[in-house]
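Methods — Computational structure assignment.
A single polypeptide chain was analysed. Its primary sequence is given first, followed by the predicted tertiary structure written as structure tokens.
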Amino acid sequence: MVSDIVQYFYCPRKVYYLKTLGVPFKVKKKMELGKNEDDMEEERLGERKTIYGIQRSLVNEIIHNIYLEDESLGLAGQVDTLLHLNGNEYIPVDSKYTEEAFVQRQYRKQLLAYSILIDKTFRCKVRRGIIYFIKQKAAECLEITELEKKALIKDIESIRRIIAGESIPRKSAESKCEYCEVRKFCV
């Protein structure tokens, strides 16, 4: 799942606790607020001259909450928004409800995972993606390379090893522990 990739790049121990030990994942209030804001943003797109910084005339179709799966990779996830542009270009848009409008590593990895799924599903090559910061109403367009996609596939294999294994992985930065929902289980 794409969510496992996000958790892994936040802290590898989260994947271990959530997937190997079955610690329940609680949806945080912030996540619920983000989902509500994302839904309202979908409605506002109809009034805009640009769609996440892209001229409306270049956008053929806007697809919201599309679920994609690649069984061979064992990868699945729901893309917040998928833009289908003229020239058969597809651009995934991932919305974030956060105080700081900067692209964290796990956000980029999530976008890469969606790109891999889109490549497979629509038989194309995604070359860019967008992180949309809801609170700031700011879109950050990122270049996506084939090299990054290949590296992510190796990361997916590492995640599988954590899930299948019995040894606890390294901890990420201590500063992340305060916000982590599995911190009370972490040693």
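Note: Strands lie at 50-51, 54-55, 59-70, 75-85, 89-96, 128-133, 138-143.
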